[in-house]
Amino acid sequence: MADKHSEVLFGLYDDEVDLLDAVKQANADHLEIMDVLTPFPVHGLDPLLGLEESRLHIAGFIYGALGTMTAFGFMTWVFTRDWPIIFGGKPYWSVPAFIPITFELTVLFCAIGITVTFYTICGLAPGKTPDILDDRITDDKFCLAFKTNGQSSEQISKLKNFFSRTGASEVHNKVI
Amino acid sequence: MSAPVSKLREPLIMGSKTYHQITEDLVGPTEKAPNSAWIIAFILAVTFLSFGLFCIAWTIYVGIGSWDLNRTIGWGWDITNFVWWVGIGHAGTLISAILLLFRQKWRTGVNRAAEAMTIFAVMCAGLFPLIHMGRLWLAIFIFPYPNTRGPLWVNFNSPLLWDVFAISTYFTVSVLFWYTGLVPDFATVRDRAKGIRKNIYNALSFGWTGKAKHWQRWESLSLLLAGIATPLVLSVHTIVSFDFATSIIPGWHTTIFPPYFVAGAIFSGFAMVLTLMLIARKILGLEDYITVNHIESMNKVILLTGNIVGVAYLTELFISWYSQYTYEQFAFFNRATGVYWWSYFGMMTCNVLSPQIFWVKKYRRSVFVTFIMSIFINIGMWFERFVIIATTLARDYLPSSWSYYKPTWVEIGIYLGTFGLFFTCFLLFTRVAPVVAVAEVKSILKTSGDQYIGPDAKHGHEKAGTAAH
């Protein structure tokens, strides 16, 4: 919904089963779905919408590895190069003692990294005001939206017909 | 599409809820003015918090000498309270992370509040090492930053420094996990709100609209955070136990400490979750979402971890005898029969004996028994830390420096103050956020709602079970 002034025709369904059936029907009818909005994660929706699996875990691995290297490298540098001190007769480079902090920073870098990445790629940020199609989508309505910019009245009535066939409880038009 | 739910599974959501009814029930309490019970509790909590702050100010003004610590007993109530609060802070991440990985659906009823409790408990815990330093304003010295003293770095080989990293990482990850779960629910609150309230929740919900792709990433993020938080939660109390285990004090220098501390932390954390949730479900009317089944599940975890702790106590006793090492043997003999015998007695009674009542299903499912037991366990686990710390230090290698320790009013005041902090935060949380995760409860409705799987379920209902995980 990044473009200015999208004309959106959307149907609200009362149950996720109706929504899943409607999405299947839309695929069969070769309708181009703009978006699907739901109050909770509906399983089985991703393959129907052709959404690829999230690659957040790859990012998480990279952030974690970065944390591992930062912590271990820094402690190694401090205790072998910058200011070597003998603690309790142990070697300067006492690797087992570095493990707890290395582990903690691996987790810390990974957690902060994936969380920031998540909000960034989703375009979510504190204070961002979203274009809300209907207030009840975060409550109990399941929304299937089509973009109708520049579409003929024939095409629009075809979409309306689609909504009534698939059992949408409400159909609305909105410019966002 | 039949529901892949065992007939043995009992419903987790009672009262034949619809999605809208779930929103009403869970978001509703944040929209109404607080009732008188809340106001009285809040005033009490703030009073305790204020007294705690006064005692902290007193400690800083007078010095650490206002506590009754001495050269023999350098750790007393402060570190006892620290370990106790950190332990309590373990249940939240256990419920939200480990139970998410195990696909335990009952976690959805309690995870939000348990995570909040974790965060507040870790805040209370972190306070104690900081004020124990005496000069609070020099606390920045514990972080390795380039300084003008060389730079002279911190000792990365010290378990006390590992603690700094463990606790601060744990706090950060818990906050991220908790807030990420809250964002969709804040969006629900936003879409029901009006006026300035809408603006506030608009800012808090980060512009969440519930797009399919966002939900997919959100689930991926939750799973990843759960995956890394699981070893994290186990590492944190392991590292706390290293504070003792890496020392050369008999009774502390034991390899059993890490698993024993982690089990004890889960044990006490679940007890505190139960104490809070039994009150919250009553006051906020959440009996349909935090059911007797939830309570029973938590009591089973308490029974398991309580017995792990019990076995650890007995193993310690056996190993000290088996070691043939006089000092080790004395340390445990002294714990059970020495000057602090009463705290050992309290620990054994509350932690090992009393949870055995949960072998009986009737008591596991009794709200009253559970509440009493949760208080018992909280007390018992506090005694455990006191036994480990004060009893051991009071009788060290040199009989000439043997000593006795009792807290001053300042130390007691600070401890009460942390209760004030904990409850002030928790009470505020119940006002601003849904105490039960709204979206997550909705996502298990079809597989755990009583109208779908309960004894009165409409069998063969075509819509049942399609939202199964």
Could you describe the 3D structure shown?
The complex is a heterodimer of chains A (176) and B (469). Chain A has five helices and four strands; from the N terminus they run E-H-E-H-H-H-E-H-E. By secondary structure, chain A is an alpha+beta fold. Chain A has two domains: 7-52 and 137-175, Alpha-Beta Plaits; 56-121, no CATH class. The mean pLDDT of chain A is 87. With 469 residues, chain B is an all-alpha fold. Chain B has one domain: Up-down Bundle (Formate dehydrogenase/DMSO reductase fold), CATH 1.20.1630. Chain B has helices at residues 19-31, 36-62, 77-88, 90-101, 107-132, 159-192, 195-204, 212-245, 257-283, 292-322, 326-337, 341-353, 361-364, 367-394, 409-432, 438-443, 445-448, 450-453. The chains are: A alpha+beta (176), B mainly alpha (469). The interface between A and B is large, with 71 and 70 residues.
In short, what is this structure?
The complex is a heterodimer of chains A (176) and B (469). Chain A has 176 residues and is an alpha+beta fold. Chain A has helices spanning 16-28, 45-49, 56-82, 95-121, 153-165, and strands at 7-13, 35-37, 142-147, 170-175.
